[in-house]
Amino acid sequence: MVTRRTAIGTLALGSLPLSAGLWAWSAQADAAQDRSSLQWLQRWQQAAASNSFAGTMAVSGPNGNLRSARVWHAVQGGRQIERVDNLAGHSRSMFRTDSGSRVFLHDQKLVRVQSNLPRGGMMFPGMQPLPAAQQAQGAARYQARQLGQERVANHTADIVGFLPQDGLRHGFRFWSEQKSGLLLKWQLLELPAGATDFQRARMLREVAFSDLQIQAPLQYATLQQMMEQTKGYRVEQQALQTTTPQQQGWSLRSLPGYAITHCYLRPPLRDKGQPQAGLGGKVTQCVLSDGLSSISLFLQAAEAGKGQQPAARGATRFVSRSYPGGQLATAIGEVPAAALQALLDGLARSKP
Q1: pLDDT higher than 50, residue 274
Q2: Which of 12, 283, 318, 349 is least buried, going by the fewest C-beta atoms within 10 A?
Q3: Cα–Cα distance, 153 to 213 (Å, whole number)
Q4: Mean pLDDT rounded to a whole number for the chain
């Protein structure tokens, strides 16, 4: 016979695991709620540097265009290596390490090798590792908001919003796997001026895993061997030459929250939508980042009057301006037009 006391005792004992689970969930939720924007950035970078994973990633834009790729990411002793294969369009595989990349254009039997790249600590799109002081300055330009939880690629994720504190960057939403901290999904958001929430946000770009295996049995050495298998391919080597704006005769006023991550001298760019070298010679490319948002600045010789008004292609905006001495500067990035204009306003020729 089950007495009332026995029943109560049984219920109390049975509720212990549930209570413990609720307490653990509450503690985890409180920890997520209390993290600053800097702490979230540090968590995501550490997660990528310490976890191997494999999955399928999709990238979509505001017009509904969709691209997908298969991703393999391995770590070893603080080093990272990644392989990304396009799943549509031209057959292409890109390998990336902390200091270089190799792009296999399978249709052309061509491998393009870039070396002397800046050391990276986070390979998920939208992330740019910065020195601690610069990372803190960039993170301070966003306010982190805990927006709940959701399942992505069969993993439970914390949803975190990054609200910009000025008009020089867009907002973001991130889905971070609760246990490992790995990013499962992120969105680039255009917000109305002075917005204090995400209610009227317009999605400009989304990157998300549709499936993801965390702690995948991947070996760094295996991916490295694949990267080095170039037999039957023509290899184009490009060791980028580092420089600074000052060495190329420019002075650049700092853009709040942004830091120059690297500058290179590179051959004239010929791709559609990129600046052209009108008078020949190399192009200086500098990349500025706040840890999330990035701007590419191209400096080159060009014919007078080549500047143009701000324009956009999808989420990417670009604007160019002529400078004395037959020089042209072009700023490109997935940032508000005001950021590009402010960057060019702070640029000047320091010597002929």
Answers
A1: no
A2: 12
A3: 9
A4: 84
Determine contact, residues 186/206, Cβ cutoff 8 Å: yes
Those residues with Cβ within 8 angstroms of residue 44's Cβ, 6 or more apart along the chain or in another chain:
122, 124, 127, 174, 176, 181, 182, 183
- Look at residue 234 in the predicted model and tell me its pLDDT: 97
Q: How confident is the model at residue 125 (pLDDT cuts 50, 70, 90)?
A: low
Give pLDDT tens digits for 53-84: 999 999 887 776 788 999 999 999 888 899 99
Contacts of 131 (CB under 8 A, 6+ apart): 259
The residues facing 53 across adjacent strands are 73, 214
Q: Quick count: other Cβ atoms within 10 Å of Cβ 273?
A: 10
Dist. CA 337–CA 308, nearest whole Å: 13
Confidence class for position 123, pLDDT limits 50, 70, 90: low
Alpha carbon separation from 42 to 85, 117, 134, 177 (Å, rounded): 27, 22, 13, 14
How many CB atoms neighbour CB 122 within 10 A?
A: 19
* 31 compared with 256, residue with greater pLDDT: 256
CA distance 337 to 299: 18
Q: What number of residues does the chain have? A: 352
Measured between alpha carbons, how far is 83 from 264 in angstroms, rounded to an integer? 24
Q: Contact 247/124 with Cβ under 8 angstroms?
A: no
